[in-house]
Design a protein that fits this description.
The chain is α+β, with helices and mostly antiparallel strands and 368 residues long. It is built from eight helices and 21 strands. The strands form four sheets. It has a seven-stranded mixed beta sheet, sandwiched between helices.
Length: 368
C-alpha cells in the first residue's frame, strides 16, 4: 500500500440546488460564517454538506439524492431551483486538490467522478464509512477523505428532564451516547471546565442513566444542583455545542444559529470558543448566524493576532427575493488590522447605527 493522505473538506460548489440557480462555490476556512437575510440560501450550504456526509455514512455515495432524511422533503422538484431550466442538480465537494463531483443528480442517482485537479482518478476500491471515505487507486495509493462532520441545530422549545435514546432528533440525545462513552483527555476536560465557567453554565456537570433508555443532565452551580430542564434556554443552546467540540478532534462542526437565546456578551464569546477549539483541537466550524456581536469579536481576535486573516471566511448572502442575482453570496475578509473588507447590504452591521440616528431625529409628539 502506498502513502496515505488524510484530507479535510475545503470547498463546496452548488448549482440548481434550492436558491442557487447558477454554479456558486464556497471556500472554507477554519471558521466560516454565513450571514445575511432569512431565506437567502445560508442553510442550503449546510444541507449540501449534510447530504454528502449522509451518503458516505450509508455506504453509498450514489445516495446523494436521498433528500428526505435531512429535511429537504421527498419531492425532487422542491429541491431544484424553481427558475432554472436545468433538469439536474450538480454538487461538488473538494478536499485540497481532490474533488467529488456529483453531476446530473436526479431521483435515480447521480453521475459521480473523483478528480485530482482536472485529472480523473480511477479507483480500485472506494470504501465509505461514517467518518471517512477511503480510496485506493490503480497504483495502490491510499487517500482518506475526512468526514468528521457534525451538525447541531438550534435548540427550540423546552428541554425534557429525561432525554430518551429513541428521540434521535433531540440535539442532546444525538451526542449524549458518544459523549458518555468518550475517553476525555485532561486537555478535553480542562477545555470544558474553562467554558462552563466562562459562560456561567456550571461548576460541574453530571450525566447519569435513568432506567434503561434515558439519561438526565444535572448541573452544579454555587453548591446547588439543577436539572438541565430548570436552566435557561441559553444553557441548553451552549451545552451540546461545547460537548461536541470537546469529544471530536479535527472535526468540522456545522452550527445553525448558535447565537439563538444568547445574551450579546455570550454571542461575542462564541468567537473565542471557536478560536480556542481550532487552536487546541484543529476543529473547524461553519456557522449560520445573524449575530453582529460574533462577527465583531472575530474582527477583534484577528487584530489581536489570536487568529490570522486566513483563519476566517465570511459570506454575506443577498436577499432571497432577488431572483435575478447571478451570485447569491459575496465573500468578505478581515484584514490584519481587524477591518472588514467587502460589501454587504443595509440591515446587518449598520442597523444599530440607523436606529440610533432615527432616535435622535425623532421628535417627541406634543401633548394637547
Amino acid at each position: 500500500m502506498g502513502a496515505s493522505k488524510k484530507l479535510r473538506l475545503s470547498k463546496v460548489t452548488l448549482e440548481n440546488f434550492r436558491i442557487f440557480e447558477h454554479e456558486e462555490s464556497f471556500d472554507l476556512a477554519p471558521i466560516t460564517l454565513l450571514i445575511g437575510p432569512n431565506n437567502s440560501g445560508k442553510s442550503s450550504v449546510l444541507k449540501a454538506i449534510r447530504l454528502f456526509k449522509q451518503a458516505a455514512a450509508n455506504n453509498s455515495l450514489y445516495g446523494i439524492s436521498n433528500f428526505n432524511k435531512i429535511g429537504l422533503g421527498s419531492n425532487f422538484e422542491d429541491v431544484q431551483n424553481e427558475y432554472s431550466n436545468n433538469k439536474f442538480i450538480n454538487l461538488s465537494f473538494s478536499f485540497a486538490n481532490y474533488s467529488f463531483d456529483f453531476r446530473e443528480i436526479s431521483p435515480m442517482g447521480a453521475r459521480q467522478t473523483i478528480k485530482e485537479g482536472e485529472e480523473l482518478i480511477i479507483a480500485r476500491s472506494v470504501i465509505t464509512k461514517k467518518e471517512s471515505i477511503q480510496i485506493v487507486d490503480l497504483e495502490d495509493k491510499e487517500i482518506i477523505f475526512d468526514l468528521g462532520v457534525h451538525y447541531l441545530a438550534p435548540v427550540r422549545g423546552n428541554v425534557a428532564r429525561e432525554l430518551h435514546t429513541f428521540e434521535i432528533q433531540d440535539p442532546f440525545t444525538r451526542i449524549l451516547e458518544t459523549f458518555t462513552k468518550a475517553h476525555l483527555s485532561p486537555e478535553n476536560i480542562d477545555y470544558l471546565k474553562k467554558w462552563f465557567l466562562d459562560f456561567g453554565i456550571a461548576d460541574s456537570i453530571d450525566i447519569h442513566a435513568v432506567g434503561k433508555y434515558a439519561s438526565a443532565i444535572e448541573l452544579t452551580k454555587h453548591g446547588k444542583t439543577f436539572n438541565l430542564a430548570q436552566m435557561g434556554s441559553g444553557t441548553a443552546q451552549l451545552l451540546p455545542m461545547l460537548m461536541q467540540t470537546a469529544i471530536g478532534k479535527g472535526d468540522l462542526i456545522l452550527l445553525e444559529e448558535p447565537d439563538n437565546n444568547l445574551h450579546p456578551n455570550y454571542q461575542a464569546l462564541l468567537a473565542d470558543v471557536f478560536a480556542d477549539a481550532y487552536h487546541q483541537f484543529n476543529t473547524h466550524f461553519i456557522v449560520e448566524t445573524h449575530s453582529e456581536y460574533l462577527l465583531r469579536k472575530l474582527q477583534v481576535l484577528v487584530k489581536r493576532g489570536t487568529l490570522n486573516p486566513s483563519d476566517v471566511a465570511i459570506y454575506y448572502f443577498k436577499d432571497g427575493n432577488n431572483i435575478d442575482a447571478a451570485q447569491r453570496a459575496t465573500k468578505l475578509t478581515i484584514d490584519e488590522n481587524g477591518e472588514l473588507n467587502g460589501k454587504m447590504n443595509k440591515g446587518f452591521m449598520d442597523e444599530a447605527d440607523s436606529l440610533t440616528w432615527e432616535l435622535l431625529r425623532t421628535n417627541k409628539p406634543s401633548k394637547h
